[in-house]
Specification:
alpha+beta, single chain, Alpha-D-Glucose-1,6-Bisphosphate, Chain A, domain 4, 4 helices, 7-stranded antiparallel sheet, about 230 residues
Length: about 230
């Protein structure tokens, strides 16, 4: 009878220990779940904040003609050219292909088919890179107003994004605008606006929220400051 009682006691002890073990495991799992959930919330918040910051920094331009610019991110940067508006306009129109590789490290080439100056209808083969992204464009000049504006666009620019585990290939439309403003003292405010048009709103959100636009913002600044330097020496 004593042996039976001892066995029953040991059995109850084992049951109690097993219950305690299960309770502790459950608490750990709940705690881990809370940590994981908190990390997800923090990550989502960071992505949202980053998206809102980038959205607030994006420039805006008017639509060119009937072009649909939905799902488009705009980047812009202005410089003050030390040259008058006529000289600055003609320099961009006639010499951009010559100085293109000098004004930014990521510039590969900018070739006007059939040569000559930029004019409405000109086709430009262009390649550039920023960060881990490289793009090849086939630009078509659509806007050219003396001392006011030069604009061209590329439909289906080929984009390559280098990641540690793979290379992603995609396409986007690219719009480029140069706007010229006479300051009245023989200098010119020259603004470059770049529009990157994504296939859909999700692709746009993904690129902006993950910082994919940041390299191009830096590239835009580098390009325009490089252009200012070249203009100063011309």
């Amino acid at each position: 009878m004593l042996i039976v009682q001892e066995e029953q006691y040991e059995y109850r002890v084992l049951i109690t220990m097993f219950k305690i073990f299960l309770t502790e495991r459950t608490m750990k799992i709940k705690k881990s779940s809370k940590i994981i959930f908190s990390m997800i919330i923090i990550l989502a918040s960071a992505v949202t904040v980053n998206y809102l910051i980038n959205i607030s920094m994006l420039g805006k331009v008017e639509k060119s003609g009937n072009t649909d610019l939905d799902y488009t991110v705009f980047i812009e940067h202005s410089i003050e050219s030390p040259k008058n508006i006529n000289y600055t306009f003609n320099f961009i129109r006639n010499n951009l292909s010559e100085v293109y590789t000098d004004i930014a490290k990521g510039h590969k080439y900018f070739r006007i088919r059939n040569g000559g100056e930029l004019k409405v209808g000109s086709v430009i083969d262009c390649s550039e890179e920023a960060g881990n992204q490289s793009v090849t464009h086939e630009y078509h000049v659509t806007d050219l107003v003396k001392n006011k504006k030069i604009g061209y666009y590329s439909e289906g620019s080929k984009v390559s994004v280098e990641l540690p585990w793979e290379t992603i290939q995609s396409k986007s439309n690219t719009y480029v605008y140069y706007d010229f403003t006479d300051t009245g003292n023989d200098t010119t405010v020259l603004k470059l606006t770049i529009g990157i048009q994504f296939t859909n709103s999700f692709d746009k959100f993904l690129s902006v929220s993950t910082g994919g636009i940041i390299p191009w913002e830096k590239h835009c600044i580098e390009e325009m400051e490089g252009l200012k330097r070249v203009l100063s020496k011309s």
